[in-house]
Amino acid sequence: MLARHQDPIIAIATAPGRGAVGIVRVSGRALQPLIQALTGRTLVPRHATYGPFLGVDGVPIDQGLALYFPAPHSYTGEDVLELQAHGGPVVLQLLLARCLQAAAADGSLPALRLAEPGEFTERAFLNDKLDLAQAEAVADLIDASTEAAARSAARSLSGAFSERITALRDRLIELRMLVEATLDFPEEEIDFLEKADARGRLDRLAGQLAAVLDTAQQGALLREGLKVVIAGQPNAGKSSLLNALAGAELAIVTPIPGTTRDKVSETLQIEGVPVHIIDTAGLRSDEEASDEVERIGIARSWGAIAEADAVLLLHDLTRCDDPVYAEADRAIEARLPDRQRLVHVYNKADAAPADRAASALAALPEGSRALALSARTHDGLQTLRETLLALAGWHASPEGVFIARTRHLKALRQAQDHLGQARGWAAQADSALDLLAEELRLAHDALGEITGAYTPDDLLGDIFTRFCIGK
């Protein structure tokens, strides 16, 4: 793996397509001969130089800016050359091919090769320009779907998340040193640990870890968002609710049952949290479905429900007193895979008798999440938004939250579990000091996985191959 990262690499660093500016980026060792071949001059480090980019015959391919960042003061920690040309795909491909040809023709340069996805950022990590959490934040900043997610990713990229993890690891190191020293001098172990307040330190560390985990969970929600499925019988108002939440006419709304035949999706944000809303085909039995297309749509609806973080089961208040309709609603609810993700939404409150919503809500089991609204007048929409955030566990302001990933949460929970075991062993004093030391080591290693202090190569490969090429 390390040998692979000794080769200079090249990629087009801007998105495919036409644009005002396109960038070709090179990273490696001793790039001066390549710079001379492409620009015909020596570049001043970190200064933009305007001029021609020369072809193999000396004829300019394009005019643009060339920037040279000598190691170690560059993004990757290696020599980096950036050619900023006009953003046509043909021009950029010509520059790419010219760089490869120039490197191959100069025997003093190692063979230049095309960069793999995320390889520039991977080199930044391997050269200690970024830790692993910061490197992941680069991709998260690019992929951010809301302003709050982008700001949180920027905080992680600046090192906010890593600083919290490093502080926890430093305190763990101090505690491990105390315990290891006690193991070396068993005749003094109880007094030594008590004087050092080892148990108190462990308790405070567990509390600090819990606070970091809570913030990370909020950051993961900003990154991943909440997948919400609107489900219910035909003509309950599912498409109207989607349109109301989105503030646009995304789905067709008619009085004809079964208008929605397939999933209709939209991503919106509530207090900065991305919410992926999916409107589904009306649910009814295969016998009631009008044709094969509707049956396929219903099957896809159940598939979306199974994958959802939250399910809005829509009830039509104008039909709730119909025994046949009410029985069909109960049959749908009985098939739902997880009631913990369920929110009962009683729609058309503007068209139903005033007391019907209150009666319907009162009839639900205690602890049910439920509300009444009108998708037509938008009454109750804000309550629905607040209910969704509560269901997702969102309770923080986006300010101060750092972006986090599922693997970060897993590592933090593992560290939390090991600290819990350690607290149990610490309560047994001298009879379990070796077990206490081992649990502290495991917690330390789990935290190290977040920043890359302890990271297997296969995990690095999985992380960086998800980046775009040229980053």
TrEMBL record:
SUPFAM superfamilies assigned: P-loop containing nucleoside triphosphate hydrolases, TrmE connector domain
PROSITE patterns: G_TRME
Compartment list: Cytoplasm
Coiled coil feature spans: none
Top-level enzyme category: hydrolase
Names of required cofactors: K(+)
UniProt binding sites for GTP: 235-240, 254-260, 279-282, 347-350, 374-376
Sequence positions that bind K(+): N235, T254, I256, T259
Residues that hold (6S)-5-formyl-5,6,7,8-tetrahydrofolate according to the record: R25, E82, K129, K471
Cofactor binding remark: Binds 1 potassium ion per subunit.
List of residues binding Mg(2+): S239, T260
Superkingdom assignment: Bacteria
Pfam families: MMR_HSR1 (PF01926), MnmE_helical (PF12631), TrmE_N (PF10396)
Domain named TrmE-type G: residues: 225-393
GO molecular function: GTP binding; GTPase activity; metal ion binding
Function text: Exhibits a very high intrinsic GTPase hydrolysis rate. Involved in the addition of a carboxymethylaminomethyl (cmnm) group at the wobble position (U34) of certain tRNAs, forming tRNA-cmnm(5)s(2)U34.
Subunit structure: Homodimer. Heterotetramer of two MnmE and two MnmG subunits.
Protein name in UniProt: tRNA modification GTPase MnmE
